[in-house]
Amino acid sequence: MAETEEKETGMNDMPGSSDARGCAGGIPLWLGLGSNSPDAMDRLDRARDALRREDGLLLVRESPVYKTEPQDYADQPFFHNQVLELKACKGTHPVRLMQRLLEIEAALGRVRSKDPALRYGPRAIDIDMLLFGAGGACLSSDPVCLLPHPRLVQRAFWLVPLRDIAPDLTVQGENISTLLDRLTWSMRDMVIYQETDTAALTRPGE
Known about the structure:
Shape: globular
Radius of gyration: 16 Å
Largest sheet: 7 strands, mixed
Order of helices and strands: EEHEEEHEEEHEEHEE
Helix content: 10-25%
Mean pLDDT: 84
Low-confidence stretches: 1-21, 198-206
Structural class: alpha+beta
Number of helices: 4
């Protein structure tokens, strides 16, 4: 049976209106955006706009956009990736929110291939929930919304922009810089390159 454990506390030092959508004192969460469509930057813009318009969400902070080397399926264009910090109104359930994010993906042109070989292949837009709850402490084993995101600790393209906007976050007790130190990656001119590192393919503690 899928279980979700939520640990909620308020977070301070958040920019923006104190009463915007009633969510400024709500639940923090971090989303990863990605696209390797020819119009990737426009897709990211549209995804951010859709999230800004979404009832019950407040966009708090956004990382720079990085160009990133594809992972697990090399024969495709480089991606553009970005991490967003948002607040959700109190009472928001991560699984139901993820279901809504999947609807937004579809509206922005995401078509999920049924071919397992293309699981990590090209895509118009990704909106991944990376972490949910104060300090990213929410744990979920629901297949719709695994938390923390099961590949977060493997992906420099998520960890680097996450560190930009939330450097003090930990993922199951490990800080972001420590997780990045376990990966074989480099960055030049805002382009992130990464070699697959099998030693880092599990979450901490597994």
